[in-house]
Amino acid sequence: MSATKQLRKAARIILVGAPGVGKGTQTERLIKKFPQLSAVSSGDLLRENVRRGTPLGLKAEATMKAGSLVPDAMILQLIVSELSSQGWLSPSTTNVDALLASTFSFVNKPTAPSDDPLSSFILDGFPRNVNQASLLDRLVPINCVVNLVTPPSIILHRIANRWIHAPSGRVYNSDFNVPRVPGKDDITGEPLIKRDDDNVETFKARLKTFDETSRPLLEHYEKMGVLWKIEGNSSDEISPKLFQELEKRFG
Ligand code: AMP
Hints:
This protein is an alpha/beta fold. It has helices at about 25-35, 40-50, 55-65, 70-85, 95-100, 130-140, 150-160, 200-225, 235-250, and strands spanning about 10-15, 40, 120-125, 145-150, 160-165, 170-175, 225-230.
C-alpha cells in the first residue's frame, strides 16, 4: 500500500454495490489510505448481534439467512446507535421513533455538518433503499455516493472463494487476498469462516433484492448530485480510481 493521504474536508461516503462486489475490501483499503476515515458496516453490525445472540440479532438471523433485508426500523436503530457512539450525531437527531414517525423532512433536520476531516466516515451496506436513504438524509448529509459495478459472473466466482474473520469483519479471498496462514486471520490468528449467506442460492436472492432496491436508491442520490459510478472487474482495478476521486474531492 502506498503512502497515506490527508483529507482536508469531512467526507461522508456511502458505497453502493451488489453483494460480493467488494465493498468491504474497498472500505478496508480506504481506511488505510485515508486514516481520518472510520467505517460502519451494517452487515457487520448485524452479524455481530447475531453472533452475540442479542434480541435484535435473534430477530434478524432468519431474514439474513434468507437473503432478504431486515426491517428499516431495525437497521436504523443499529446505525443510529453506532453513529451516536462515535460522536457523529447530535442528541437531537437520534430519536429514532420520532424519525420513523415523521413524514416531513423539517421534523428531523440534520445539524450543520462538521467540516472537520476527523468527522469523516464511510457507510458500507446502508442505506439499501430509498426509505433508508431519506431517513439518513435527515440524520446526517452524505456528500459522496460511490456506485461500485462488477459483472455478476465475476462476483459469483469471488463469493465461492470468500472467507471472513467474524469478530472483526476482515475479509479474505483464496484467489487474490490470501491470508498469511491458510484459514487463519492475519491479525489474531483466529480461524476464518464462510459466511452463512455465501452460497449460490442465497447469492441469487440477494442479487435480486439488490437489483430491485438499488435503482431508485441511485436515482435518489443522482438527484442530490452526489453520485459517482466506478466500474472494474476486480478490487485492485477499482481501488486506484476510488483513491484518486476522493483526493480530488476531499484532499
Ligand atoms: P451485507 O454484509 O451488507 O451484505 O449484509 C448482510 C445481510 O444483512 C443482508 O443480506 C441483509 O439481510 C442484512 N442487512 C445489511 N444491511 C442492511 C440494510 N441496510 N437494510 C436491511 N438489511 C440489511
